[in-house]
């Protein structure tokens, strides 16, 4: 299902976070700075030591595909020759991870979850210049083992 770019009016396939025509960001995606804080408890472990899992609501996913541009490829090629880290690609990975996690937690919230357990990422390339990042976890409802006032729940 395509989305319509608010900047130029062209259509781009869902899953792409930038307009194919004008390179404008898709509405609702993260900015270059990324998200600073998730509003939901997310862990890579299957259980939580601080909370009791009350219900498993099912798997949730967040996915994003970013296209590399010519300048980023040129700078990465120079980095390959002289050595060192590619800041442009690292920034792209951070943005992609943040976007995928934000989409995953939004979907968990839509299911009524207040946490995601067992979260992990999967990275893949699509074509010659696209990076796909998937975030996968299990949406759950949890209750803290210790109440906010420091007492154990009854």
From TrEMBL:
Which Pfam families does the record match to this protein?
YbjQ_1
Family per UniProt?
Belongs to the UPF0145 family.
PANTHER family with a match to the protein in the record: UPF0145 PROTEIN YBJQ
Q: What is this protein called?
A: UPF0145 protein CA13_11420
């Amino acid at each position: 299902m395509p989305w319509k770019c608010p900047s130029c009016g062209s259509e781009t396939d869902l899953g792409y976070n930038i307009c194919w025509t004008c390179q404008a960001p898709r509405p609702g995606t993260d900015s270059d700075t990324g998200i600073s804080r998730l509003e939901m408890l997310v862990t890579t472990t299957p259980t939580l030591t601080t909370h009791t899992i009350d219900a498993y609501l099912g798997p949730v996913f967040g996915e994003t595909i970013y296209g590399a541009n010519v300048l980023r490829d040129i700078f990465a090629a120079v980095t390959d020759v002289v050595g060192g880290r590619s800041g442009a690609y690292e920034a792209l990975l951070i943005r992609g991870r943040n976007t995928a996690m934000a989409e995953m937690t939004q979907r968990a919230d839509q299911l009524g979850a207040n946490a995601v357990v067992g979260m992990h990422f999967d990275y893949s390339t699509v074509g010659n210049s696209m990076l796909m990042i998937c975030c996968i976890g299990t949406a759950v409802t949890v209750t803290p083992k210790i109440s906010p006032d420091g007492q154990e729940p009854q």
